[in-house]
Fold this protein.
Amino acid sequence: MSQLSAWDHPEPLALDTAPLPEYGSGSLADLLPTVAAGMGVPGMTATIPELTAADRVCVLLIDGLGWEQLRAHADEAPFLTSLLGTSRGGTGRPLTAGYPATTAVSLASVGTGLPPGLHGLPGYAVRNPATGELMNQLRWQPYTDPRAWQPYPTVFELAHRAGVHAAQVTSPIFEHTPLTRIALSGGSFHGRLSGEERMDLAAEQLAAGDRSLVYTYYSELDGAGHRYGVASDTWRGQLMYVDRLAQRLAEQLPPRSALYVTADHGMVDVPFDDEHRIDVDTDWELRAGVALLGGEGRARHVYAVPGAEGDVLTVWREVLGEQFWVASRDEAIAAGWFGPRVDERVYARLGDVVAAAHDDVLIIASEREPKESALVGNHGSMTPAEQLVPLLEVRS
């Protein structure tokens, strides 16, 4: 009888076994403050001790280029692979993305130099306490005032004020988006369609000032991973192209420059079966007491009907606790998932229950989120495949 009971109610994962991001010493949020401090920007602190200051710095962020995925594909990325030993100031170690490991969160962490608990973008989709609705922070829908949502200045803005030549070189479609405004604005924006044009112009912008801070971005690797998976020929083809782009930029660096190649998250391919994809829309037990389902498949924010918070936590922990770290809002905050501190304005954006995947599983919602539920490659949680990102370095 005791064996059956243990089978029915397995011991949930202990929250202290979740591998926390290296906030304050080796996370994406620490990169630009360290770079800007080396340029003498007031108020910036060098929190990644391994990095050496440079007068001109370019950050090339490749969406979806996880550390583990790069190391597993040396043949497709010979140039980037040759730089693995330079990562994080020559230590050969990666950075961590921050939680959740997803694009909107990571770009805000990069641009503001703040962890999610402060910049206030703590997930793919979170509740807006002012309206009670879910807000998609990547697409910024439904619209809310960007500066009310994220009031802190970006590092690019602070650098520009301090006389540093700051520039962003990316796709023209991002020029006027709210996410760009609150995370990456400051200095000049330069829209270019092709990857080659972006690399060439990034090098030009780097040379345009005695002190320069340039950001450039490539998104299609992530798209290939989501649609076809990181085991696909399409993803590998994109990685080959990204490798050539990075080398093209590295070969054009002006004097006194540092190029950092990094990413916003890694990715995990999740099989299409009921064991690996748990569908909330067809599971009455997980739906009970849930008013809103936020986040994404591997990093869920669960908003309970008022008064049902404890019951929802109990059920989610009992049903999912072997495969997910399942925490209450206060437990996740106390554990430091969103950084050392959570602003008061951010507190209610977090789920009453927060679930982070440990195994190669998803919590999908086939009816409410049909497109997201059909993705092959996914990310968001704290596993190494999602959290670890490179910080490859080239100097001139």
Observations:
- The chain is about 35% helix and 20% strand.
- The longest helix spans residues 233-250.
- Confidence is low (pLDDT under 50) at residues 1-7.
- The first strand starts at residue 56 and ends at 62.
